[in-house]
Amino acid sequence: MKKNDAITPREVDMAKWYSEICLKAELMDYSKVKGFIIYRPYGYAIWEQIKNYLDHQFKLTGHENVYMPLLIPQSLLQKEADHISGFAPECAVVTKGGEKDLKEPLYVRPTSETLFCDHFHDILNSYRDLPIKYNQWCSVVRWEKTTRPFLRGSEFLWQEGHTLHRTSAEAREETLRMLNIYNKMGEELLAIPFITGKKTDKEKFAGAEETYTIEALMPDGQALQSGTSHYFGNSFAAHYDIHYLDDDNTLKVPYQTSWGVSTRLIGSIIMEHGDDNGLVLPPYVAPIQVVIIPIRPELNGEINKRAKYLYDKLVEKGVRVKIDNSPSSPGWKYAQYEMKGVPIRIDIGPKDVEKNSVLLVRRFDSSREIYSFDDSLVDKIISEFETINKGMYDKANRYLHSHIVEVHSKEELKDVLTNNKGYAKMMWCGCRECEDKIKEEFNATARCMPFNQEGFDDVCPICGKKASKVVLFARAY
Amino acid sequence: MKKNDAITPREVDMAKWYSEICLKAELMDYSKVKGFIIYRPYGYAIWEQIKNYLDHQFKLTGHENVYMPLLIPQSLLQKEADHISGFAPECAVVTKGGEKDLKEPLYVRPTSETLFCDHFHDILNSYRDLPIKYNQWCSVVRWEKTTRPFLRGSEFLWQEGHTLHRTSAEAREETLRMLNIYNKMGEELLAIPFITGKKTDKEKFAGAEETYTIEALMPDGQALQSGTSHYFGNSFAAHYDIHYLDDDNTLKVPYQTSWGVSTRLIGSIIMEHGDDNGLVLPPYVAPIQVVIIPIRPELNGEINKRAKYLYDKLVEKGVRVKIDNSPSSPGWKYAQYEMKGVPIRIDIGPKDVEKNSVLLVRRFDSSREIYSFDDSLVDKIISEFETINKGMYDKANRYLHSHIVEVHSKEELKDVLTNNKGYAKMMWCGCRECEDKIKEEFNATARCMPFNQEGFDDVCPICGKKASKVVLFARAY
Fold first, then answer.
1. Is the pLDDT at A301 greater than 60, yes or no?
2. Of residues B36, B41, B105, nearest to A69 (C-beta)
3. How far from B365 is each of A281, A300, B338, CA to CA, in Å?
4. Which of A36, A53, A231, B276 could bridge across to A175 with cysteines, CB 3.0–4.6 Å?
């Protein structure tokens, strides 16, 4: 299978394999400041596909985009105690502006709850203004000690939704609606199956009442939190003095949500699908969906003509397609587009012209198929997208479900967590001490309490007390 | 004409009129940090239209989007002397990260030339890599003393293009190609005629060899620089050690450009087209192109049915349309959508149903027309967009060209500049001293040397020396 000597095999060193793909597929480069990466055109184009997909979904569900300032005054960040203690330690702080020392330090936004809250305080008046459903596309800064491209950066790109509702029920519904949009994106766009569920109190967002998550499982058995959706109740609203006049003429405090996904999703895609030849992209998120390679076009004038004809027809149908006419050898090109994870390669050579056919090679399973060069070709290529996306999703889903192991004792828990077996599904007492112990002994965390809470044991294997919750524990990125 | 008592008339106080439109049309709000504004949904949606238009044009002309880090190390910013002296005084500086003092201060990007140069140094190898044509959508920070929403902010949204070319001729061509795209956007999207031309050395970008500009003329006779395109030659490339191996096997330094427009364009639109009833938006940039107002729908069930039918038909054709079914009075709604500058209002009331017609009211000239409610209605509405856009452009263009005044003496120059007469078109000697004098005495600057350099005088009216250039002087935002 392995054809590209240039990268370290995943089995040998997954971290190295990952970094090499990031660089060699030209997704990113490092900048002079630790943890701040350069999103190169190919990496950024993946993010643009994710943005387009989500922005469309957000607008369909009645959300509007806004843009809040980059800098947050210290006094504003401090209003919600949990929030400041959660975020302040990882902030970058501006202390000088226009060559003068500032009176008050300004924090580069690590997230924008406080800014949205302050704005909501100013603009919300009547129950008629509700719901307010905003989203923002921006970058945020968190001063991380250990950084890895896309997975954990001191700066990353993301979207953050912020909404206000009249009732708690409506806000809870919004929280789950957005989680479902993320989950659907996993299936439709990224070919990644997520485990969805609720975070434990220890793991929830600083200041949230409830946090829901989409968790992906990587090939090394580690979980990757890929997006979250928070129900805030009205604690932020109370701290930031947000209220409205209800139709019964009394002042009320609205209920709030926030939710976000980031360029970390690019990290999920790389690890979930990549192989020893490089990146493997699902078709709907791929910046280049089809690459056409004319083979020895100098031998037959028909070759380039057919390549161009097919290219035009695919463009007409909205397919993201490229012809590579460069002087490099076919072998070099194959390796190149494999590294870049282009889902479909189409070769047209002298023999193909003779036989009135083309060769189609799928990236994800290396399967090859000969298609007639006729009127049905374009539709056949397009129908491959669905087949490939489903094939990739199903493969990842089989892996995921074979790596959720019910554990009934501490020994079984240890086995799953220390031998890369994925999620340990455990009945948990609900107390923080047991979570802390698991973290300390096995370096693993409660990833989520899945929506399906069908129990299977009576006691928590850590403390022996009555178990009340089904929890998935795993090591995580 | 004036129906909305809520805002200050433009003639009375243009600055106040402007700020009131910004707030009352809900384009923006102020944040707690001076010069940092909140882009509210309606303002941000205008920016999204501009983004969509330009992003499409950039991609059609072979540009790729990237994202560079937010923070620039001081040492990197310092490599180009003109550049650092131009930008450092207006930078925000991060000195703390993760609760520790940083060893080297990090500047929040005021623009990203230095980051692009550093990256180009790393990725450029061979002549085969050229041209490299990148663009970035982001926000930048410049610590401004006097700020006004959209026109001059400490933070603003923009795009910055950065390209590298093998030859000087190709880079110059790129510089003008992008200027032309901006100019075409003025005509097609913003209904704003720009004066295009070259900046004098005094006015050019810090570090550029040549700067080209699009300048709009506001109703108070002041110019508004609305976008620039720079030819860098290879000075940046030399300072940042960017080179490539050419096909003759020698190392060469490439030629560079950069170009950008910002949310300042929203300011141009407000001032260029707005009136005493509020914002007036050209149809192609308007977030809501058509608003349908059912009048007394309780009187005839057909009214809401027709409104919904028309709405659906317009949505089908991709028109951005809204029905306002709220309980507010028609008069209140009219004032509301006038304030928001919605280009076309359609009223459907009981009499319209009787006569099988609708009333169409254009925002920009208040003209009213009765149209049959038949199969041709949708196409007629859509064809209004072009008529309105052209009408708005032509009006602005007549104003512009009646406010370019040839001056032959210092007295004439003074008259134009101090009496809000627009551009003083003057023959200039080419020396910096005369520019400084005009700045000092009349608070005006050389806006540009227009492409048409047909001369009309022999001497510079300031110093009496031989004149060599046609220059447009004006006061400017």
1. yes
2. B36
3. 52, 63, 11
4. A231
| Phi-psi sector, A428: left (phi>0), alpha (psi -120 to 50), beta | beta
Q: Is B99 in the A-facing interface, judged by CB distances under 8 Å?
A: yes
Please report the residues numbered 65 through 94 in chain B whose beta carbons come closer than 8 angstroms to any beta carbon of chain A.
65-73, 75-76, 88-94
DSSP, collapsed to helix, strand or coil, labels residue A476 as strand
Tokens of residue A382, six digits: 């397009």
Of the residues B26, B36, B85, B326, the best mutation for testing chain A's interface (the one with the most A CB atoms within 10 Å of its CB) is B36
Q: Which residue is associated with the tokens 């993760």? A: B98
Residue B287: asked if its preceding bond is cis (omega within 30°), the reply is no
Distance from the Cα of A65 to chain B's closest Cα (Å) equals: 6
> How far is Cα of residue A473 from the mean position of the Cα atoms in its chain?
20
The pLDDT assigned to A44 comes to: 98
Closest in B44, B65, B94 to A65, CB measured: B44
Nearest CA in chain B to A138: B138
Tokens describing residue B191: 């209904």
Q: How confident is the model at residue A2 (pLDDT cuts 50, 70, 90)?
A: very low
Angle of helix A168-185 versus helix A41-60 axis, rounded to 10: 140
Contact flag B91-A98 (C-beta cutoff 8 Å) = yes
Contact A33 B106 (CB under 8 A): yes
Mean pLDDT per 10-residue section of chain B, whose length is 477 residues: 71 96 98 96 98 98 98 90 81 95 96 96 97 98 95 97 98 98 98 98 93 97 97 94 97 98 98 97 98 95 96 98 95 97 98 97 97 96 98 98 97 95 97 97 97 94 96 97
What is d(CA A329, CA A334) in angstroms, rounded to the nearest whole number? 9
DSSP-derived letter for residue A188 is I
The reply to whether B245 touches chain A by the CB within 8 Å rule is no
CB within 8 Å: B94 and A93: yes
Please give the pLDDT value at position A85. Answer: 82
Taking CA atoms, A391 is separated from A183, A285, A399, A475, in Å, by 17, 15, 12, 27
**Residue B110 corresponds to which tokens in the numbers above?**
């005021």
A102 token code pair? 């500032």
In the chain, the amino acid numbered A96 is K
The residue of chain A nearest to residue B41, with distances taken between CA atoms, is: A66
Contact A65/B41, CB-based, under 8 Å?
A: yes
Q: Please tell me the predicted confidence (pLDDT) of residue B84.
A: 78
Do B456 and B438 contact (CB within 8 A), yes or no?
no
pLDDT tens digits along A201-222:
999 998 899 999 999 999 999 9
d(CA A464, CA A437): 13
ipTM of the complex: 0.96
Q: How far is B17 from chain A (nearest CA, A)?
A: 21
Q: Give the burial string for A102-123 (b: 16+ CB within 10 Å, else e).
A: beebbbbbbbbbbbbbbbbeee
- Do residue A36 and residue B70 have CB atoms under 8 angstroms apart? yes
A397: left (phi over 0), alpha (psi -120 to 50) or beta: alpha
Query: In the prediction, which pLDDT does B1 show?
Result: 41
Beta strands in A335-392, from DSSP E residues, in sequence order: 344-348, 357-362, 368-372
Q: Which amino acid is it at B116?
A: F
- Cβ atoms of B427 and B409 within 8 Å: the answer is no
pTM of the model: 0.96
User: Which residue in chain A has the smallest CA separation from B287?
Assistant: A64
Residue among B69, B106, B157 whose CB faces A38 most closely = B69
**From B29, B40, B76, residue closest to A32, measured CB to CB:** B76
Interatomic CA distance for residues A367 and A391, integer angstroms: 12
Of A36, A44, A154, which has the smallest distance from its Cβ to B66's Cβ? A44
Which residue type, as a one-letter code, is found at position A300?
Answer: N
pLDDT tens across A354-406, in order?
Answer: 999 999 999 999 999 999 999 999 999 999 999 999 999 999 999 999 999 99
